[in-house]
Write a structure and sequence with these properties.
heterodimer; A: 286 residues; alpha/beta; Glycerol-3-phosphate (1)-acyltransferase; seven-stranded mixed β-sheet; 11 helices; 9 strands; 12% strand; B: 314 residues; Rossmann fold; seven-stranded parallel β-sheet; 13 strands; 37% helix
Chain lengths: 286, 314
């Protein structure tokens, strides 16, 4: 039993380039003497993600990053990206990019919904892989500890929009800006190009979504043709454009209007990154 | 004030027969004059500790305060037995605590230390990873039997505001393990403890001697308020069980819950099933206030705690 387990673990580890694996193990997220950070993150657990994440990242979505070194090597930072594509593949791609393409690798801590800890296995796995329940206290603590946070301020609004509004940013939440001001954290804007085409939705069937308790129920042409199989995202090419770190100053508890103005600066820079990406790409799938 | 400095400080420990009370008395009796009170029989105690066998709700308890000027009261006489009848539980904890506080106010005791627990916050999936002292006490949401302990904690808080002349300290330690007979220690002593399949929350443990140190720290003049008390850095539950060399049984939640419900009603198990949430969700505290204001830092690591659990008999 023990030997079999060791062999399986070794197989997972072997899926990584040895140098990369070494760097991943050396990531510093403030682990204690037992190798865990206070949120339960343990770099070695990332091995179980290795084969799937690498295959998706390198082969299925063939992700490509531009100026990823704009993200500082250490210290607190918030990555703000546009959200798209009906299912949150962009979060996974962004996390993988920071692990596989950033030198040195950095673990992206994203904020998960509060029902995630109620699901067996998922709860443990998410915690070990560095994901954290989304509360303000947790975000603040992560940044205080020099973490790299990712947020999609559009939330469900962005992810569930129909294809006619592809690459048009929806309303941004203000919470991330208040957090950045409060903790004096630089913001790196990220433009994600490709996600919109993975699952083009023609209609958001809201009644069905409400019935099933889902945030959205997209109807895609592929679904009409292939049934549930159509819910698979298409192998689009993901392109990630990282902007220069932005620093903001001011009171974090200012009026919404003042905060909104700052958020709009981030929003327009993400827009610029997306337009650059759309201009540079020659096709959706290659 | 001067006269008080010349003699040893006189400290009343309620619930001295308990393991924590005994541990505290043994640490204090050389430097302080210790008076213990308990309605239970108190096993061996050093000779210079005077032990009164009385119920804190009864009149005999008052005499202790009438006889001599008391410098501090450490209130540990709080019932945690889930098997005990709930009305007795409520009565003993709330009426008893009220009595202790009334006597302190009446006899102008300058300091009261109460041992509450971090369990009053309650494990919950929506919890921030570390709860501060002002987090709401929500443990009663799913677990009715803990409501008296929450009410007790709240009662001490109101006393704190009503009697500013008395330094009230409320300590909320995380799971105390070691030579104590409480739920977490019993769980870790099991040869094959059950865990919930697919859940492995981060837990904070604290060694019983560290809790004693925190109480002694709280006796320092000038200290008042509510403090979360945490031990060494948090670790996953599975890591503690691993270090203990246990072979846990991983049981699906629905099955374990049903088993505990049946076991509880047939008196085969003393584990109230709502407490399963403690091995499912996080309920960890932020102990920054204790570190900064109280000057408390835990001395016992997870390995020390594990060693003591394995090598010291209860």
């Amino acid at each position: 039993m023990g030997i079999a387990r060791e062999k399986v673990d070794q197989w997972f580890i072997d899926s990584f380039d040895p140098e990369l694996w070494d760097a991943i193990c050396k990531m510093d997220a403030g682990q204690n003497e037992y190798g865990y950070d206070p949120f339960g993150f343990h770099p070695e657990y990332l091995k179980y993600l290795g084969p799937t994440a690498q295959w998706l990242y390198h082969h299925y979505f063939r992700a490509e990053t531009h100026d990823i070194q704009n993200v500082p090597d250490k210290g607190r930072v918030i990555l703000i990206a546009n959200h798209s594509g009906q299912i949150a593949i962009d979060g996974m791609i962004l996390g993988s990019a920071m692990l596989f393409d950033h030198k040195p690798p950095r673990i992206v801590r994203s904020m998960v919904e509060h029902w995630v800890p109620t699901i067996p296995f998922v709860s443990t796995f998410m915690a070990r892989a560095g994901q954290v329940v989304g509360t303000r206290e947790n975000a603040r603590l992560l940044l205080d500890r020099g973490g790299c946070l990712a947020a999609f301020p559009e939330g469900v609004r962005g992810i569930s929009k129909t294809f006619d509004r592809a690459y048009q940013l929806t309303e941004f939440g203000l919470g991330f800006m208040r957090l950045a001001l409060e903790t004096n954290t630089p913001i790196v804007p990220v433009g994600v190009v490709g996600g919109e085409e993975q699952m083009p939705s023609v209609y958001n069937f809201e009644k069905a979504a409400n019935l099933l308790g889902l945030p959205a129920f997209p109807i895609t042409p592929a679904m009409l043709l292939l049934g549930p199989l159509g819910a698979m995202p298409m192998p689009v090419k993901y392109r990630l454009y990282f902007g220069e770190p932005m620093h903001f100053e001011g009171k974090f508890d200012d009026e919404d209007k003042v905060i909104q103005a700052k958020v709009d600066v981030v929003k327009s820079s993400i827009n610029a990154l997306i337009s650059r990406g759309l201009e540079e790409r020659e096709g959706v799938f290659f | 004030m001067n006269r008080r400095r010349q003699r040893k400080e006189r400290i009343v420990i309620t619930g001295i027969a308990g393991r924590l009370g005994r541990a505290l008395a043994k640490r204090l009796h050389r430097t302080h004059e210790v008076i213990g009170i308990d309605r239970r029989f108190t096993p061996y105690m050093p000779k210079d500790i005077s032990v009164e066998r009385a119920d804190i709700r009864r009149r005999r308890f008052e005499d202790v305060f009438r006889r001599e000027q008391i410098d501090a009261v450490v209130h540990l006489n709080i019932m945690h037995n889930p098997r005990q009848d709930s009305s007795l539980h409520h009565d003993f904890n709330l009426v008893g605590t009220k009595k202790v506080f009334e006597l302190c106010a009446e006899h102008k005791v300058p300091k009261v230390v109460v041992l509450s627990s971090a369990n009053v916050y309650g494990p919950d999936p929506k919890n921030p990873q570390f709860l501060t002292e002002d987090a709401p006490l929500l443990a009663g949401t799913n677990f009715g039997a803990i409501r008296d302990l929450i009410a007790l904690d709240m009662f001490c808080n109101t006393f704190f505001w009503r009697h500013p002349e008395i330094e009230t300290v409320i300590l909320r330690p995380v799971h105390i393990v070691g030579q104590v007979d409480n739920a977490p220690s019993r769980y870790f002593r099991l040869e094959r403890p059950m865990t919930l399949l697919g859940f492995d929350p981060m837990v904070q443990l604290i060694h019983v001697e560290d809790v004693v140190s925190a109480i002694i720290r709280a006796l320092t003049p000038g200290i008042r308020g509510v403090f979360n008390i945490a031990g060494p850095s948090p670790v996953p539950l599975s890591l503690v069980l691993d270090k203990l060399g246990r072979h846990p049984r991983h049981v699906p939640e629905l099955v374990l819950r049903a088993m505990l419900q049946v076991g509880w009603s047939f008196k085969l198990s003393d584990w109230p099933w709502p407490e399963l949430d403690h091995i499912k969700y996080v309920c960890m505290v932020d102990d920054e206030a204790a570190r900064n204001q109280l000057g408390f830092a835990p001395q016992f690591s997870v390995d020390d705690i594990v060693y003591d659990l394995l090598h010291r008999q209860l």
